[in-house]
Amino acid sequence: ILLLVLSRIIQAVGASAMMSLSQGIITATFPPKERGRALGFNGAMVSIGNLTGPAVGGLLVSRFGWQSIFYINIPIGIVGFSLTLALIPEIHKKSRLHEFDLKGALLFCITVIVMFGSLLLLQENVISSQIFVPVFVLSVILLMLFVYLQRRTKNPFMELSIFHNKVFSLGIVSAFLSFVSIFTTVLFMPFFLYHVIDLPPLYAGLVYAAYPITSVIVAPISGFLSDRISTKPLTVTGMSLCTISLISMSFLNKSSPIFLIGVLLSLLGAGMAMFQSPNTSTVMGSVEKNRLGVAGGLQALARNLGMVTGSSVSLVIFSFLTKTNMNSMSGTSFDAGLFIKGFSAVLIFGGVSSFLALLVSLKRTTN
């Protein structure tokens, strides 16, 4: 187990580096009139990965065992490494290499672990609310200390001065909120399709695939449009579709038509794809070229924190309303009525998050 955990940490470091740098490389490589389309294709590739990864992984595990999902990544990694060397242009920078802020990095890691670890432990009933509240307050204090120290460090781990750029800040906040909203569905919809609607795993996967398939189609179109019209209408429309979809899904029940569920998931996928490419293009285009790495890193951080926040808060809401957790709601003990109660509240939380992202997008200057 220890070797598996350590290996996954190394894998996560590599994946984080790719996510942080990819958008900066695209922004530096393509001119502004082509940037949205390039980022749109990048988003489409992410959706294709989200669509094919679980399907291929499930097939490999069922046929060859769980180890096979790691073996398959070896040739994929070699091909990716080779293509990177052959195709990705080398971008030379004239800036000096500064000393790494190890203290700031450690403080940030501790803050994130304490904050989200306490939410997870509360959801799993490992700790009581009496313990959770002071621990969570501690994490907030640590976050404030981190910000205070970073503003006074010569070479900070996180360059917070970039947030003085209003366009960048609003884009990062709206990206964070959008991923909070999406991960309410990502976490709970498979359970709803399988346990409440009683779909076999294969058919549940096909219905849920409506979300990434729509994203694959819409992302390049959205990126193409963002190069020719203002990005503001696209991001606002995208978050409007997400809000409508999530609030509508909060009314789903055991008798809901499968077609309706597919339509709402498609609407959600279209909205997210319509939002992401223009928003990313605006964020990355609002900073100087020598800050593209920092901007890409913060964009990836907002995405990951949004995913973790959406998942953690959703689980806490679900556990609070149902007086149980997801692990205990399986098999013969599954209570569909109780699940729907928590499921609806979680989706309303997602809808509120996407609506807040919509409001933030409205405040952004038209470009």
Tag the structure with descriptive keywords.
78% helix; 2 domains; globular; 13 helices; mainly alpha; Growth Hormone, Chain: A; 367 residues
Description:
- The structure is a single chain.
- With 367 residues, this protein is mainly α.
- The protein folds into 2 domains: 2-88 and 165-363, Up-down Bundle (Growth Hormone, Chain: A), CATH 1.20.1250.20; 101-156.
- It has 13 helices and no strands.
- Helix 2 (32-64) runs antiparallel to helix 9 (210-226), helix 5 (102-123) packs parallel to helix 12 (292-322) and helix 7 runs antiparallel to helix 8.
- The longest helix is centred in the N-terminal third of the chain and has 33 residues, at 32-64.
- The N and C termini lie far apart (50 Å).
Explain briefly what this protein structure is.
The protein is an all-alpha fold and 367 residues long.
CATH topology of the largest domain, by name, is Growth Hormone, Chain: A
CATH homology-level superfamily of the largest domain: MFS general substrate transporter like domains
Biggest beta-sheet profile: none
> How many extended strands?
0
Distance between the termini: 50 Å
Specify Rg, calculated over alpha carbons.
Answer: 21 Å
Hey, roughly how much beta strand do the residues contain? under 5%
List the helices and strands and how they pair.
Layout (H helix, E strand, L loop, with lengths): L1 H28 L2 H33 L3 H4 L1 H15 L14 H22 L5 H22 L15 H31 L4 H8 L1 H17 L4 H19 L8 H28 L6 H31 L13 H28 L4
Helix pairs in contact: 1-12, 2-9, 2-11, 5-6, 5-12, 7-8, 7-11, 7-12, 7-13, 9-11, 10-11, 10-13, 12-13
